[in-house]
Amino acid sequence: MSEEERLVSGEQYIDDQAIDAALRPKKLDDFIGQERVREQLSLVLHSALRRGRTPDHVLLSGGPGLGKTTLAMIIAAELGRPLRITSGPAIERAGDLAAVLSTLSEGEVLFLDEIHRMARPAEEMLYLAMEDFRVDVVVGKGPGATAIPLDIAPFTLVGATTRAGMLPGPLRDRFGFVAHMDFYDPAELEIIVRRSAGLLGVRIDDRAAAEVAFRSRGTPRIANRLLRRVRDFAEVRADGYVTLDLARSALDLYEVDESGLDRLDLAVLRALLTKFGGGPVGLSTLAVSVGEEPETVEVVAEPFLVRQGLLARTPRGRIATPAAWTHLGLAPPQVPGPAGGTLFDVTPDTD
Ligand SMILES: Nc1ncnc2c1ncn2[C@@H]1O[C@H](COP(=O)(O)OP(=O)(O)OP(=O)(O)O)[C@@H](O)[C@H]1O
Ligand SMILES: [Mg+2]
Kindly report the CA angle at 22 between 238 and 34, in degrees rounded to 5? Predict the structure, then answer.
C-alpha cells in the first residue's frame, strides 16, 4: 500500500486483489447483509430459472468495496452460467463491445464493471443488444455506410457503477432490476469480519471483531483490510490471538479512530473547528489549511464526514455540526444569531 493509499478507503488496492477474491462469498445465501437486494435478486434469478428464460438485466449501484463484483459473480453462479467480465474503460469503441457481444454464448452473464465509463457510441449499441439481442454492424463509411443487423445470443447484462448519477437515463431504464447497495451496519460487518477471520485462519475475539467492524466505515473491503492489519499486529506483538485490547492498539497505531476516521478526516475536522470556529468556510480555504488539494478533501474526506453527520456542505461553505465538536472533545461556541438562531442554522444566501 503506497503512502497515498489510505487504510480506510473503499477503493481496491493491488494487495487487496488476491484477498478480495479469496474472501468473496460464492452463493447468495453466504452473502451477508443487503437484505432487500438479496431477496429481490433471489426472486429475479429464481423466477427466470423456473421459466427457463434469461433473467432481466441487473444494475448494481453503490460505493467502492460494497460487494458489486461479488454479487455479479454470485449471479452467474446461481444461474449456473459462465461469466464474462469486462469494464467501461476497456470499451473505447463500439467495435470493442461488438466483439464481446457477438461471442457470448446463450444465457451467458456479461459483467460490465464501471459501466458509466463506457464510450458513448458503444452505449447506443448496448441499448439495442439489451433490448433485442441484436447489434448493428456498420459497414463502410459516409453516405454509403450500411448497418447489417446481427443476432446475438440472449444474455444477462450485469452492470456495476459507483456513480449511478452519471448513467444516461435510457441506459438505466433498460435494466429490469436496479440494486442499490448501501453501507453495511456494524452487526453485519461483524459477521463478515468473523467469516473472513475463519477463512484466513485468524483467531479473533468476538469483541475484537466488533471493534474492527465498527471502524470499517460500513464497507466490507475496509473491514477485511483492517482485519489483516490487526492480525499483523497481533502476530508481531503477541501470540497472534486478536483480543479487544490488541485490536484497539493496532487500530490506534494505524490512526483509524473509534468511528473509522483517519488522520486526514481528523485534520479537516480539527481545522474546521479550531481555525474557522466551525465554519462556514470555503472548500479551498479549508483544504489549504490542512495542506491538501481541494479535490482530495472533497472526494476523499468529506463524504464520510458528511455521512457521519460531522460536517455539512452548505451554499455558504463547509460547517461543522454539533456532533463534530463532541467528537473532538471540544465545546461548541455559543453564538446566537440576531433572530436567536445558532451557528448551525443552514440558511442559503439570498443575495
Ligand atoms: N456481503 C458481503 N459479505 C461478505 N463479504 C463481502 C460482502 N460484500 C463484499 N464483501 C467482501 O468485500 C470485498 C470487496 O467486495 P467487491 O470487490 O465485490 O466490491 P465492489 O463493490 O465490486 O468494489 P469496487 O467498486 O471497488 O469494484 C470482497 O472481497 C468480499 O470479500
Ligand atoms: Mg468491483
Answer: 100
79 and 156: one domain? yes
Which long-range CB contacts under 8 A does 99-104 form with residues at least 24 apart?
Answer: 101/125, 101/129, 101/135, 101/152, 101/155, 102/135, 102/150, 102/152, 104/152, 104/153, 104/155
Q: How many CB atoms lie within 10 A of CB 152?
A: 18
Residues 165 and 47 in one domain: yes
Cα 167–chain centre separation: 16
Range of the domain at 268: 263-327
* CA–centroid distance, residue 52 to ligand 1 (Å): 29
Catalytic residue among 20, 54, 69, 81: 69
Domain end among 253, 283, 307: 253
pLDDT tens-digit readout, 211-231: 999 999 999 999 999 999 999
- Is 247 a residue whose pLDDT tops 70? yes
The CATH number linked to 293 is 1.10.10.10
Question: Cα(224)–Cα(8) distance, rounded to whole angstroms?
Answer: 11
Mean pLDDT of the chain: 90
User: 83: buried, middle or exposed (CB in 10 Å: 19+, 13-18, 0-12)?
Assistant: middle
Answer yes or no: are the C-beta atoms of 304 and 260 closer than 8 Å.
yes
Give yes or no for a contact between 65 and 93, defined as CB atoms under 8 angstroms apart: no
**CATH number of the domain enclosing 41:** 3.40.50.300
Task: Examine the fold and report which residue of 155, 180, 205 is the final residue of a domain before the chain moves on.
Answer: 180
Phi, psi of 122 (to 5 degrees): -70, -30
What is the predicted pLDDT for the residue at 140? 83
Report which bound ligand comes closest to the CA of 71: 1
Other beta carbons less than 10 A from residue 311's beta carbon = 25
CB within 6 Å of ligand 1 — which residues? 11-12, 20, 23-25, 31-34, 64-70, 162, 192, 220-221, 224
